[in-house]
């Protein structure tokens, strides 16, 4: 039986990870699981400086107030920190987006999603943007239940 009590949603605030947000919420509702929303800050994070990223992270909240939510902000290598956190927090399922890089770009930059899938002790759901679909906007305050 697939028993999910703790879901980790990893975001880099890109449209790719935002697409995964909706899957994470639906799964948390379906399994009545807690949801940890995590961002691993790096110097080239899309949200800019560390403080801005932390503030942006805290605004992501599901409309469903029945979902227990925890926010985690870490610094370091995203794949390494995500894998470490899955072990430390006994996570049952990771939900994350992928940029879908291929070829030389993937070889040079690596793939966070691929490394997490290989090394995490739990299942990992990798969500990509469907072909032809416009990028999803960042979960807004209206969508995430924040006034």
Taking the alpha carbons of the first and last residues, their distance comes to 38 Å
Question: What is the alpha-carbon Rg in Å?
Answer: 14 Å
Total helical elements: 6
Structural class: alpha/beta
What is the total tally of β strands?
A: 5
Q: What is the total domain count? A: 1
Parts with pLDDT < 50 across at least 5 consecutive residues: 104-109, 140-147
CATH architecture: 3-Layer(aba) Sandwich
* CA-based shape: globular
Q: What spatial order of strands do you see in the largest sheet?
A: 3-2-1-4-5
Mean pLDDT: 84
Word description of this protein:
The protein is α/β, with parallel strands linked by helices and 147 residues long. The chain has a single domain, classed as HUPs (Rossmann fold). It has six helices and five strands. It has a five-stranded parallel β-sheet with strand order 3-2-1-4-5, sandwiched between helices. Helix 1 links the parallel strand 1 and strand 2. The longest helix is centred in the N-terminal third of the chain and has 17 residues. It is globular.
């Amino acid at each position: 039986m697939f028993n999910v009590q703790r879901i980790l949603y990893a975001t880099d605030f890109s449209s790719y990870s935002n697409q995964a947000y909706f899957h994470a919420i639906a799964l948390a509702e379906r399994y009545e699981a807690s949801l940890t929303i995590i961002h691993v800050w790096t110097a080239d994070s899309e949200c800019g400086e560390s403080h801005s990223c932390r503030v942006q992270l805290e605004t992501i909240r599901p409309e469903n107030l029945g979902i227990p939510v925890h926010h985690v902000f870490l610094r370091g290598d995203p794949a390494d920190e995500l894998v470490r956190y899955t072990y430390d927090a006994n996570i049952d399922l990771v939900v994350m987006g992928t940029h879908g890089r291929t070829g030389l770009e993937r070889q040079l930059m690596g793939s966070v999603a691929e490394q997490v899938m290989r090394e995490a002790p739990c299942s990992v759901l990798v969500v990509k943007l469907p072909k032809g679909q416009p990028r999803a906007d960042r979960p807004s305050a209206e969508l995430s239940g924040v006034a």
